[in-house]
Amino acid sequence: MKVGFIGLGIMGAPMAEKLIAGGHQLYANTRREVPAALVKQGAIACKTPQQVVDEAEIIFIMVPDTPQVEEVLFGEHGCAKGKLTGKVVVDMSSISPLETKRFAAKVNELGAAYLDAPVSGGEVGAKQGTLTIMVGGDEATFARVKPLLELMGKNITLIGGNGDGQTCKVANQIIVALNIEAVSEALLFASRAGADPAKVREALMGGFASSRILEVHGERMIKRAFSPGFRISLHQKDLNLALQGAKDMSLSLPNTASCQELFNVCAANGAADLDHSALVQALEIMGNHKISS
Amino acid sequence: MKVGFIGLGIMGAPMAEKLIAGGHQLYANTRREVPAALVKQGAIACKTPQQVVDEAEIIFIMVPDTPQVEEVLFGEHGCAKGKLTGKVVVDMSSISPLETKRFAAKVNELGAAYLDAPVSGGEVGAKQGTLTIMVGGDEATFARVKPLLELMGKNITLIGGNGDGQTCKVANQIIVALNIEAVSEALLFASRAGADPAKVREALMGGFASSRILEVHGERMIKRAFSPGFRISLHQKDLNLALQGAKDMSLSLPNTASCQELFNVCAANGAADLDHSALVQALEIMGNHKISS
User: Do A189 and B167 meet the contact criterion of CB atoms below 8 Å apart?
Assistant: First the structure.
């Protein structure tokens, strides 16, 4: 199949490679030059998103944030300028659920179907083709695109209509941030009170406090293993989507707001490019105590 | 062995039964009358904690909070008035880690060993003998008492010295409360944005957001199954231990403080006796939106 891919960064490039490896003809575009490695594998470099749409049937987008998706779709040489009728736009970026509904409606008006399909699993998941993919859109379009998504991911769920995939991703990022914060407060309390945080983590792993975050990020905190992983600056972007969405919908998310403030404390202290488990450093600075094991 | 048990409430009574069932002679005391069922099983009712200590070699305490433990230990007819030399006091209540260190030191001065051994697992765990037990004390005493603890629990961990068991329990309660709050914010955001919270929960279960709380309490929130379980009023007591301890140690626990406030919102709206997963109701009231599935 003729498949398009717009946005070939840390995530996009390995995802595009999976589509080529799956036997598809890839039409690729990115803000800089299309990576030579990808062209070598058979990708055809396109100068604009418009050109990608003219050639491909299903067009994937993987760019940093809402404004970049809007530019790719509706900018000067954007997808909307190309031959869209009967095609599918699949936005795999993590962006605003509310804006996604607007983008989908506009793309539908131009005669194309739209899926929002943000992912979790990071660079490792992209390279291994094991991403979790949360999809919003109609069932027929989902069925049409699913074989391609299966080249890139493992747990692929249709959550609901357009926007619901992005909403699910935001919910995921809320829980991950708040669970990191929870483990941080608990291990810091334990350490400050004189208990061994490693023993506390072990004792809690089997019970009601158990979580993937306690398992993976709790260990990172104890071992001071803060090289990313998933950068604080990216999680700040995602919590901003949550908080902006909450404001737009008149919803109070007090601990999401608190976590964003703690990430700000991290950024103020040079930790914005560390793994998000380094959130614990904000509480350590505030409490003048470091977790020690 | 001659074993003492002081405090025969919802938790204490089934725990004491396990000791009798294990073949031990039980000397029992509680603020009201010793339950007839327990006497029928062979327990000897004692009028005071002092009398329990005079008869038994290892004395368990299971009462509501720090002041009650202090009263049992050092009150008018408290344990300290009995023949303590060479014996062991095991406090299984959930109380202040800092006060525990003080209590242990005083008991040691009287010639007895001390373990703090708070539990998690609730009434169900007590009845099934599957409690998680987090122990603080020295290794020799732990080894001496462990066969008795194994009659009451399954995951039994020596965390460290006196107070560390209580510290671990507080850390557990911090994570549980904050994970409940995290799931509440995420599912409420999803629901308010128009996504199906049940589908969102399912999609998140395999990934980084997964936790026992998302599994068990996320389902409670969606199904509106708020009969306890573990009451909000009890979790408020535990978060108070965390926040009081944090104040005493000069540590900032912003999201624990926020959760306590949300429990206060629940209490203000008649939900103090519901399961702690009903924390979501505070955010629902504040955001004027209920999770719907």
Answer: yes
**CATH class entry, domain A1-159:** alpha beta
Q: Does the pLDDT value for residue B293 go beyond 70?
A: no
**Model confidence pLDDT, tens digit, residues A99-119:** 999 999 999 999 999 999 999
Mean pLDDT in residue range A193-218: 95
The reply to whether residue B255 touches residue A250, judged by beta carbons under 8 angstroms, is: no
Instruction: Say what the pLDDT of residue A206 is.
Output: 81
Q: Residues B105-135: pLDDT tens digits?
A: 999 999 999 999 999 988 889 999 999 999 9
Residues 192-221 on B with a CB inside 8 Å of A are 192-196, 199-200, 202-204, 206-214, 216
Q: Would B1-159 and B166-285 be classified into the same CATH topology?
A: no
What's the fold here for domain A166-285?
Answer: N-(1-d-carboxylethyl)-l-norvaline Dehydrogenase; domain 2 (1.10.1040)
Chain B residues in contact with A117 by the CB 8 A cut-off are: none
Which among A155, A163, A250 has the least Cβ separation from residue B287?
A250
CA separation, residue A45 to residues A35, A62, A68, A73 (Å): 9, 16, 19, 18
What confidence tens digit (pLDDT) does each residue in B173-216 have?
999 999 999 999 999 999 999 999 999 999 999 889 999 999 99
| pLDDT greater than 80 at residue A35 | yes
Do B239 and B260 meet the contact criterion of CB atoms below 8 Å apart?
Answer: yes
**Rounded CA gap, A242 and A239, in Å?**
5
B254 to chain A, any CB pair closer than 8 A? The answer is yes
Burial class (CB in 10 A: 0-12, 13-18, 19+), A86: exposed
pTM to 2 decimals? Answer: 0.94
Q: What is the DSSP string of A237-286?
A: HHHHHHHHHHHHHT---HHHHHHHHHHHHHHHTT-TTSBGGGGHHHHHHH
Beta strands in B131-251 (DSSP E): 131-136, 153-160
Residue B42 has pLDDT above 80, yes or no: yes
Q: Where are the domains of chain A?
A: 1-159, 166-285
Instruction: List the Cα angle A187/B236/B62 in 5-degree steps.
Output: 85
Instruction: Specify the pLDDT at position B292.
Output: 80
Section B1-17 average pLDDT: 97
Determine the length of chain A. Answer: 293
Q: How far is CA B192 from each of CA A244, B188, B283, B288, B292, rounded to the nearest angstrom? A: 13, 6, 12, 10, 9
DSSP codes of every residue in A35-71: PHHHHHTTPEE-SSHHHHHHH-SEEEE--SSHHHHHH
B20 Cβ contact partners less than 8 Å away, ≥ 6 residues apart:
B26, B38, B41, B42, B43
